[in-house]
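Quick one, T. Sequence first:
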Amino acid sequence: MSDGPVGIVVVSHSGAVADAVVELVRQLANLPDSGPRVVAAGGMADGQPGTDAARVATSVRDADQGGGAVILADLGSSILSAFTAIEELLSPEQAARVRVSGGPLVEGTFVAAVQSAAGDELEAVLSAADSAGRMDKLGDRR
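Structure tokens:
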């Protein structure tokens, strides 16, 4: 059993996008105060578009309450920044508790937050985020 809920980190090239995803998920998931931390790591420190491994590492440290963290990212270089943060900027102990999801940014963040709030551990939260890309949104309305 982990020490706390799995944290979620949203990495986007846009600070506004990362902040908006976090706000939307907090509202829709109705996360309790004791629930998972959902943290934005978007854009560069000067507000310009881009990703910053140091910002990602800081966000992981903020999000991880002992249960680890799942990172969801938008575009290719945000994945590179996430792995740079994990491999070069986090302690080995913390890096071992971080996973990067290939799931979609919004849906993946939402289902990861819900599963974390429900008490799921790191690998289950990662699996939920990854599988969000295969959710059938249209049903029989194709």
